[in-house]
Amino acid sequence: MGTPDAERFTARAPNAEFIQGYGLTETAPVVLMGALGSRNYASVGSPCPRTQAKIVDLNDPTNTALGPNMSGELLVRGPQVMKGYHNNQKATEEMIIEGGWLRTGDIAHYDDNLQFYITDRLKELIKVKGFQVPPAELEELLRSHESVVDAAVVGMPHPVAGEVPRAFVVTKPSARVTEDDLKAFIAEKVAVYKRLDGGVTFLDSIPKNASGKILRRQLKLEYCS
């Protein structure tokens, strides 16, 4: 959950203790967990006991661990990691590599305090002129705008750049924000290649599945094909 959403939740439930965590079905299910009382809602915490995590460069076949504040794919290993997929050795070998490390498929980094941050899914990165743009980064920035309730960002085909970010936004009922307002809001906060050059579309709601994940493929088919 992004920081703006977490802050909205804690504002409505001030007596509840909110803790971010991270895991996959293949890790049964938790590998990273925030500390009790932490207000760093952007982080999913640090590795659970007997669990190891590292960040590796997407183009490094040796999977050498990167240092703090360097972005790459998150790999984990520990007693909760699955042995493999039933009757599917090929999928198992693609998921679990040498040393028992499991590829999560998530882009992440950790800070100097060993707090990890998930920034996006590897397969959902938008590739702009060779640069990789995490949709979740732009979505969180959009949600921080005072007029925005929810947002989604996908890659839109572009004849020169390959892809450019396109945003889909749900605004508050009384909001008067325009496409140019939001494009300017993002432009002043990000690198040039992360700007919303694919435009902004206003929707009544962002399509999501039952678990709350954005249906990016549906948005691409309806608005970017």
From TrEMBL:
GO terms for cellular component: peroxisome. It is found in: Peroxisome. Gene3D superfamilies: 3.30.300.30, N-terminal domain of ligase-like (3.40.50.12780). Its main location: other. Keywords: Peroxisome. GO terms for molecular function: long-chain fatty acid-CoA ligase activity. Residues 137-213 form the AMP-binding enzyme C-terminal domain. InterPro entries: AMP-bd_C (IPR025110), AMP-bd_C_sf (IPR045851), AMP-dep_synth/lig_dom (IPR000873), ANL_N_sf (IPR042099). GO terms for biological process: fatty-acyl-CoA biosynthetic process. The keyword Disulfide bond does not apply. Pfam families: AMP-binding (PF00501), AMP-binding_C (PF13193). Residues 6-86 form the AMP-dependent synthetase/ligase domain. Belongs to the ATP-dependent AMP-binding enzyme family. This is AMP-binding enzyme C-terminal domain-containing protein. It comes from Anopheles maculatus.
